[in-house]
């Protein structure tokens, strides 16, 4: 997949993997990439890169790429290659037939955080303007939707507060439910550099991740809690701060709503929230919790970085608000070296959320029910929009099984492998009448599709990605789309065939429209990004060159709002039948469902998903490293090989979900966040037993 030879020219573009958003030079010979080298002026990465971005780009020209559109009447029929015109016409006629038979709301669309801002904007516009409903959602539903809810509620904006560079001013770093050295390696290195300079580290994680005692780093505190106990722990940290007189009283008085604070203070001071009272729930010694809380509150600039170990819980949104409460309570927000920083898994999670890919929000996180903003989009798009929110992804599955949701346009997202409770998802998809999958490979979801529209990789299109620090960077086309069209052009064709014309000559014009309609993007243009290298939103009249640190003098919502965070135990409890708790995560060389990295040399380093298990639990079951084990939950069962690991605590097992054969999401359940339906991937009660090799 690589071209042997010396490069003739290079193009600056952005990595298509994680939310760090590293800049790369694609070094080219003709239209072939010779190598990817980290761009030394890249503002997110400063010349650094990891093994994914640097070496795992060959999937773009992998032999598995599908370059011809295909259709079939039934999912049991063989695929038939057709022209673009026939595929698009067939998809449009099927969507219109379904809507005529089953109603306007019987179809919808799913966008992807792997796609560009411009592409996700177009998909939500197609759903709202051409389908005429709000049944649009993004794969951020299953990762950071609680971040959107929790941060908007407390501090007023659904985004991280800082730049990555801000960590260089942190004296205390608290990492909660994130594994930056594997999941966000370039930021992980930056964080470790700050630790070597003397910053203190608190790790909150059920698993002993590398940051706890890996190469060149040792955490000052590892709060190794039980899966599902996040909110109890954050309350115990806050209880210590409140009852030991460690509150930032002046900051709170000046910057936060007094009544909400008083109510929160009274709640959190209750004995039931103390480290001692919650020790049985969290499994973390009370003395350790108290010491960590004191360090966070008094150790100087304290920054929190968190990941999916926070959001992917039944109380994901509650935990995000608990983290914001901690930062406000200690005055650790609104300047360098502090803040609340969600680490985004995919390259464009932030962007896909910004672009209005949620069923209740138009671009810029504005509710579809707001007359003024809806009328603004109606005038710009020349259509009437529905004021009621549409279906979220899990609601689409439920509606499909009820018989009221029949058609789906799914761009760049493998919902069968990535969403929880695979059997439920598969049954829902199998019950639908027209599924259009737009992807670069025939993924697991394509098994249920009736139309396959070949997608384009990040090397084949222009656009922008927005990383975890709100930084909008250019994606630049380095070679022509293998299938003839970039994804944004395919969405235009589908919309036109549906009778709603969208007219853009290039993605720059799409961004211009986004900027016109979105106050936080008013100043954004390709010209500005090219001039500055990248730009962090909000970028508008008040901040013409962007905003590195948010909430400086006041919160985006005005006063910060403390929210009461009552702990509620997860529905997933250990029982005699399911005595262990399973949690999931990622490893360095692979990326999410592995569609890209599995088709690169990176797979040599990690060829399968394994079940990590503590030696006590392994010995009790007669399991050794390398043995095959069956894992069963109330949702389903699968088989993996075991890895006996001291990273685990007794009673907790762990796996990754990079390989479809492992079926990790066959066992995760339909339990989800109360506010956003983000699945509870991180807590599943299971049994593990040795089995014969399958
Ligand atoms: Fe790509 Fe993330 Fe690695 Fe940077 S850290 S090269 S963005 S995968």
UniProtKB/TrEMBL annotation:
GO terms for biological process: formate metabolic process; respiratory electron transport chain. GO terms for cellular component: membrane; oxidoreductase complex. It comes from the Bacteria. Residues 8-64 form the 4Fe-4S Mo/W bis-MGD-type domain. Coiled coil: none annotated. One of its GO terms (molecular function) is formate dehydrogenase (NAD+) activity. Keywords: 2Fe-2S, 4Fe-4S, Iron, Iron-sulfur, Metal-binding, Oxidoreductase, Repeat. Belongs to the complex I 75 kDa subunit family. In the C-terminal section; belongs to the prokaryotic molybdopterin-containing oxidoreductase family. This is Formate dehydrogenase subunit alpha. It comes from Trinickia soli.
């Amino acid at each position: 997949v690589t071209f042997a030879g010396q490069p003739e020219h290079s193009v600056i573009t952005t990595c298509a993997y994680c939310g760090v958003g590293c800049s790369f030079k694609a070094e080219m010979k003709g239209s072939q990439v010779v190598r990817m080298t980290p761009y030394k002026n890249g503002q997110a990465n400063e010349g650094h890169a990891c093994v994914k971005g640097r070496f795992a780009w060959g999937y773009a020209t992998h032999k598995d790429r599908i370059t011809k559109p295909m259709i079939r009447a039934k999912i049991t029929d063989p695929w038939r290659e057709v022209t673009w015109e026939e595929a698009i016409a067939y998809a449009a006629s099927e969507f219109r037939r379904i809507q005529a038979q089953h109603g306007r709301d019987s179809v919808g669309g799913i966008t992807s955080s792997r796609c560009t801002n411009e592409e996700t904007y177009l998909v939500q516009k197609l759903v709202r303007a051409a389908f005429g409903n709000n049944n649009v959602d993004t794969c951020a539903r299953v990762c950071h939707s609680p971040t959107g809810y929790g941060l908007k509620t407390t501090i007023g904006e659904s985004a991280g507060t800082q730049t990555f560079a801000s960590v260089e001013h942190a004296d205390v770093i608290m990492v909660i439910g994130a594994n930056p050295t594997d999941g966000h390696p370039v930021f992980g290195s930056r964080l470790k550099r700050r630790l070597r300079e003397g910053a203190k580290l608190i790790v909150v994680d059920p698993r002993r991740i590398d940051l706890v005692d890996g190469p060149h780093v040792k955490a000052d505190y590892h709060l190794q809690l039980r899966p599902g106990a996040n909110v109890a722990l954050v309350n115990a940290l806050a209880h210590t701060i409140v009852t030991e007189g460690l509150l930032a009283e002046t900051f709170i008085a000046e910057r936060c709503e007094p009544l909400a604070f008083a109510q929160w203070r009274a709640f959190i001071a209750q004995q039931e929230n103390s480290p001692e009272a919650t020790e049985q729930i969290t499994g973390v010694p009370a003395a350790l919790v108290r010491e960590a809380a004191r360090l966070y509150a008094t150790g100087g600039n304290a920054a929190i970085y968190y990941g999916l170990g926070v959001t992917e819980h039944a109380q994901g949104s509650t935990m995000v608000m608990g983290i914001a409460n901690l930062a406000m309570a200690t005055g650790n927000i609104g300047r360098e070296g502090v803040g609340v920083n969600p680490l985004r898994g995919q390259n464009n999670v932030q962007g896909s959320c910004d672009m209005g890919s949620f069923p209740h929000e138009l671009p810029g996180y504005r509710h579809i029910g707001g007359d003024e903003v809806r009328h603004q989009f109606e005038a710009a798009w020349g259509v009437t929009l529905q004021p009621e929110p549409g279906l979220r992804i899990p609601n689409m599955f439920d509606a499909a099984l009820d018989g009221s949701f029949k058609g789906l346009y799914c761009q760049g997202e493998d919902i069968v492998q990535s969403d929880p409770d695979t059997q439920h998802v598969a049954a829902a998809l199998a019950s639908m009448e027209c599924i259009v999958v737009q992807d670069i490979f025939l993924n697991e979801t394509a098994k249920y599709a009736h139309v396959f529209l070949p997608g384009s990789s990040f090397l084949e299109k222009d656009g922008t990605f927005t990383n975890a620090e709100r930084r909008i960077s250019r994606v630049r086309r380095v070679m022509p789309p293998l299938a003839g069209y970039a994804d944004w052009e395919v969405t235009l064709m589908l919309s036109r065939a549906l009778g709603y014309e969208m007219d853009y000559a290039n993605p720059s014009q799409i961004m211009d429209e986004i900027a016109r309609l979105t106050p936080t993007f008013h100043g954004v243009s390709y010209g500005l990004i090219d001039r500055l290298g990248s730009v962090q939103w909000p970028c508008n009249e008040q901040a013409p060159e962007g905003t590195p640190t948010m909430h400086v003098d006041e919160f985006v919502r005005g006063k910060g709002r403390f929210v009461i965070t009552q702990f509620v135990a997860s529905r997933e409890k250990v029982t005699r039948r399911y005595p262990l708790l399973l949690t999931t995560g990622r490893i360095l060389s692979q990326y999410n469902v592995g569609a890209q990295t599995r088709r690169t040399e990176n797979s040599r380093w990690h060829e399968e998903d394994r079940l990590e298990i503590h030696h006590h639990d392994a010995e009790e079951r007669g399991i050794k490293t390398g043995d095959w084990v069956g894992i069963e939950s109330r949702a389903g069962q699968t088989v993996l090989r075991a890895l006996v690991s001291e990273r685990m605590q007794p009673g907790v097992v762990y796996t990754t979900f990079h390989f479809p054969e492992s079926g990790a999401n066959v066992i995760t359940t339909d339990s989800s966040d109360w506010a956003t339906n983000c699945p509870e991937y991180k807590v599943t009660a299971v049994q593990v037993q040795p089995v014969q090799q399958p």
